[in-house]
Amino acid sequence: xSIDTMHLRASAVKPPFNRVEGRSSLSLQSDSGCKIxxxxxxxxxxxxxxxxxxxxxxxxxxxxVSRAKSSEAVSAEVRIFSPDLLVICERMxxxxxxxxxxxxxxxxxxxxxxxxxxxxxxDCTDWQEWSGINEVFYYAGxxxxxxxxxxxxxxxxxxxxxxx
Length: 164
What we know:
The chain is of the alpha/beta class. The chain contains six helices and five strands. The chain has helices at 5-13, 48-59, 74-81, 97-106, 122-131, 143-154; strands spanning 40-44, 64-68, 85-89, 113-117, 135-138. It has a five-stranded parallel beta sheet with strand order 2-1-3-4-5, with helices on both faces. Strand 3 (85-89), helix 4 and strand 4 form a beta-alpha-beta unit. Helix 4 (97-106) packs parallel to helix 5 (122-131). The chain is globular.
């Protein structure tokens, strides 16, 4: 019995194109209206509430947002979504954010990688340069503080609170 290895190899590396679960926009080409330099932002976050908060933040500035909910989904999502910026949770289950960033840099990813951590961890700082992480944000577990830090880094005016 002959096995078609070309077919197996091709099917093994093809990402699932019909999966748009974590995307804020189906149109990957419509970058108009984005108020910051990063039109497409990939958020690597396993917690739904944290992802929703960050998605709202970036969408408020006109960005398209996608999500990788697990460390295994990151490289496929990078290939499919072609983000301008990656924002990674430090405490991803399975693999650390530093390992995820290292793998992406090894794969020749040049886009900025930002890591956010609830606790000030010396490990993040020690591994930051080696793993190719451009920025580390310590937000003490308060999502409002993380949004403030992102606004400061992006030199943005605060969004008008729509919930008031």
